[in-house]
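Most newcomers find our protein records easier to grasp once they have seen one. Nothing more is needed to start thinking about how sequence determines fold. Here is such a record, shown just as it appears in the course material:
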Amino acid sequence: MSSSFNISIRINLFSPCSDDNSSAFKYGSITSVSSTRVSSNNVDFPIDVVLYKKDTFQLADHRYEKKDLENVSAQWAEELKVALENISEEWMDATFNKLPQL
């Protein structure tokens, strides 16, 4: 019998990498969800997100279902493929050069 866990993400919108709250939310959400779902096969939707803006003492929460993020998931997968294709392969030569030549 397998159990499934929901993802709960808490994002503080005070981000040192950006003054743009939507960028902080996007980065935090996508990377958290992607890495969690890939590393654990028993994590699934819904995804609960809670936002806190520094010094406001107020929270905003939202629940995402699978259908809400299908387009984002597809785009994320495609963007990762493109990024992987653009990474230099020279670093792998040291290993491949150890294979016998045919």
About this structure: The CA atoms of residues 5 and 43 lie 5 Å apart. The beta strands are 5-12, 43-52, 59-64. Confidence is low (pLDDT under 50) at residues 1-5.
